[in-house]
Automatic annotation (TrEMBL), chain A:
Residues 120-283, 287-359 form the NADH-quinone oxidoreductase subunit D domain. SUPFAM superfamilies: HydB/Nqo4-like (SSF56762). This is Nickel-dependent hydrogenase large subunit. Its cofactor is Ni(2+); Fe cation.
UniProtKB/TrEMBL annotation, chain B:
Residues 28-94 form the NADH:ubiquinone oxidoreductase 30kDa subunit domain. SUPFAM superfamilies: Nqo5-like. It comes from Methanogenium marinum. The lineage of its organism: Archaea, Methanobacteriati, Methanobacteriota, Stenosarchaea group, Methanomicrobia. Coiled coil: none annotated. GO terms for molecular function: NADH dehydrogenase (ubiquinone) activity. Pfam families: Complex1_30kDa (PF00329). This is NADH-quinone oxidoreductase subunit C. It comes from the Archaea.
TrEMBL record, chain C:
Keywords: 4Fe-4S, Iron, Iron-sulfur, Metal-binding. The keyword Amino-acid biosynthesis does not apply. This is 4Fe-4S dicluster domain-containing protein. InterPro entries: 4Fe4S_Fe-S-bd (IPR017896), 4Fe4S_Fe_S_CS (IPR017900), NADH_quinone_OxRdtase_chainI (IPR010226). GO terms for cellular component: membrane. Residues 36-65, 67-96 form the 4Fe-4S ferredoxin-type domain. The keyword Iron applies. PROSITE patterns: 4FE4S_FER_1 (PS00198), 4FE4S_FER_2 (PS51379). GO terms for molecular function: 4 iron, 4 sulfur cluster binding; metal ion binding; oxidoreductase activity, acting on NAD(P)H.
Length: 359, 128, 126
């Protein structure tokens, strides 16, 4: 019987963008068990809803996460709009969808860069981030914020995108598409990437389903699970097909994301082609009374906002189930049995966002 | 407006394990467990789904009640149950991985049950 | 073929301009709608306190008696709610960022003295 030692990993670690602590029980170089601890960035944003006007709270809901920010605010708005029975004008729905896809592109490019960085592939890292910058420029030009857009509100959106600008955005996306395809090719075919990630941290389809994996983590294991297929916002009119890969290893989770960037470009192009005219917001009167579970697909996976209100200005309960939080049990399963040196890459492939896991 | 289907079923705490077992054999996945404090009582929602027709089991508990853990059926449930324990101070029995309050280590223990005092920047600032 | 791609990329990187900006020597990118910082046109302010009540991060303190409007720059998250709720539309969002700082930045803006009552009456009669 060999001796077991416990190696603390994190919360401050060069490869971790955010503070998660893992106690790794090792047998020689092999991980036997991993015990996660979070709580380093708990801000209690869910509780703050009891102190703020529900309309102003959209901006706080957006700040739950620094990367999937826009999707958080839209999901919160969806919940309130359902409770109050507000019909959001179609143009607002389409523009929300465009922004959500933009935030997916930028989040995935950020993640692809970070993964390349974790592998020591600096060139690819910079390439991915340079592409991300192009996306962020369009984002700032239309919403006013690079990563925190703040352009969604209960009942619609705050500012419109003029039609000329929409055309420019599509042209811009067309011009960077070859570059995105090239970086996609590198992730699919490059020896370094394949060697580092193929067959690593395998999560079978059954395990992924049973442990509650969501988003690219589940789709990389072959689960055909994407909330966008339910057609919230404008996804119903755009036609949507989830991207899945069958192997369930790190490389497949990576490929899901790099394919989704291109799929997002397509979705934006289709949304712009179908863009309806009309108003961008609906007047909101009164206060919400009731409860609703709103689901949406964030870059990191399925996210749930549960809102319970009792007809007052302040909401009773706002619960956010973020994708990272439910991806922790699959992560714990994936970590058991791998080498210590592979831990950083495996942790990164669930795209951990601890800020939103704790709110 | 696109409604996402969601059925809420109110059950007694004692039925919870049996129901969870049923969902598991039917092939549902666990979406989330969430707690809602309502003054003197807490509502806990267990959400399951196979595709996109969500179903929630709802139990109502009070301070000091013990909640049976469904982590025997759904291995991944420990994360939510520990969260409920750490944030609301409710006790969950027989969890497969019991962090004993160390999953979310906040400076103020059980912050959602005994919220720390809110400092108001001079002359209020809260929406009235 | 991969070698060819690589050579092309390497040449582009050697001969091209850097992709980054030397901020703050070169100003950051700006667009018309960029949210940089909040300014107030204090002459128009009626000190109603709406901005203070709606500010999500409690960055604004309005004093009706002393006729002052105060903003804590480090609390402000530049969300723009105050500009939206102001009844006199006297809060604006400027696209350039506030200069960085190492300590607290609280700006106190003193409003002009209250107009005499008589004048106000005359205005409503018009
Ligand atoms: S809302 Fe406008 S008018 Fe009222 S106190 Fe604020 S700045 Fe002045
Ligand atoms: S921009 Fe937002 S945070 Fe800043 S002062 Fe205005 S309301 Fe407050």
């Amino acid at each position: 019987m060999s001796n077991q030692i416990v190696v603390p990993f994190g919360p401050q670690h060069p490869v971790l963008p955010e503070p998660i602590h893992l106690d790794l029980v090792l047998e020689d170089e092999r991980v036997v068990e991993a015990v996660p601890t979070i709580g380093y960035v708990h801000r209690g944003l869910e509780k703050l809803v009891e102190k703020r006007d529900f309309k102003d709270y959209v901006l706080i809901a957006e700040r739950i996460c620094g990367i999937c920010s826009f999707t958080h605010s839209v999901t919160y708005c969806n919940a309130i709009e359902h409770i109050m029975g507000i019909e959001v004008p179609p143009r607002a729905q389409f523009i929300r969808t465009i922004w959500m896809e933009y935030s997916r592109m930028h989040s995935h490019l950020l993640w692809l860069g970070l993964t390349a960085d974790a592998m020591g592939f600096e060139n690819l890292f910079m390439n991915a981030w340079r592409l991300r910058e192009e996306i962020l420029d369009d984002m700032e030009a239309t919403t006013g914020g690079r990563v925190i857009q703040g352009s969604s509100k209960v009942g619609g959106i705050r500012l419109d995108i003029p039609d000329e600008k929409l055309g420019e955005m599509v042209d811009h996306l067309k011009s960077i598409r070859p570059l995105l395809e090239e970086s996609n090719r590198i992730f699919t075919h490059d020896q370094t990437v394949r060697h580092r990630m193929r067959g690593l941290g395998v999560l079978s389809k059954e395990e992924a389903w049973d442990l509650g994996a969501v988003g690219p983590t589940a789709r990389g294991s072959g689960c055909d699970m994407d909330v966008r297929s339910t057609g919230y916002s404008a996804y119903g009119e755009l036609g949507f097909k989830p991207i899945t890969f069958p192997h369930g290893d790190c490389l497949d989770r990576c490929l899901v994301r790099s394919e989704e960037v291109l799929a997002a470009v397509d979705l934006v192009e289709r949304a712009v082609a179908k863009m309806p005219d009309g108003p961008i917001e609906e007047k909101v009167k009164g206060n919400p009374d009731g409860e609703y579970f709103a689901f949406s697909e964030q870059p990191r996976g399925e996210c749930m906002h549960y809102v319970k209100a009792n007809g007052k200005k302040n909401i009773v309960r706002h619960r956010v189930r973020t994708p990272t939080f439910t991806n922790i049990p699959p992560l714990v399963k994936m970590l058991a049995g791998i080498e210590l040196a592979d831990v950083p890459v495996v942790v990164l492939t669930i795209d951990p966002c601890i800020g939103c896991a704790e709110r | 407006m696109n409604e996402q289907k969601h059925t809420v079923i109110e059950i007694a705490v004692t039925d919870l394990l049996k129901k969870a077992e049923e969902y598991h054999t039917k092939g549902h996945r666990l979406v989330q467990i969430g707690c809602t404090p309502l003054g003197d009582r807490y509502e806990i929602n267990y959400t399951f789904t196979t595709a996109w027709d969500f179903e929630s089991l709802r139990i109502t508990v009070h301070d000091g009640d013990e909640i049976p853990s469904i982590s025997g059926t759904y291995w991944g449930a420990f994360i939510y149950e520990n969260e409920i324990h750490d944030l609301f101070g409710l006790s969950v029995t027989d969890m497969n991985i019991d962090f004993q309050g160390h999953l979310i280590e906040t400076r103020v223990p059980t912050p959602f049950k005994n919220p720390p005092k809110v400092t108001i920047v001079s002359k209020g600032g809260d929406a009235q | 073929m991969p070698l060819f791609t690589m050579v092309k990329r390497a040449l582009a990187n050697v001969t091209g301009k850097p992709a980054t900006l030397m901020y703050p020597a070169t100003p950051a990118k700006q667009y018309d709608v960029s949210r940089g910082h909040i300014v107030i046109a204090i002459e128009d302010c009626i000190f109603c306190g709406n901005c203070q009540r709606h500010c999500v991060s409690q960055a604004i303190v309005v004093d009706r008696e002393a006729r002052t409007w105060e903003i804590d720059r480090l609390r402000c998250i530049i969300c723009g709610v105050c500009a939206e709720v102001c009844p006199k539309d006297c809060i604006f969002i400027e696209p350039d960022y506030h200069p960085s700082s190492v300590g607290p930045v609280v700006e106190l803006v003193q409003g002009p003295p209250a107009p005499p009552k008589v004048e106000k009456k005359a205005k409503t009669e018009e």
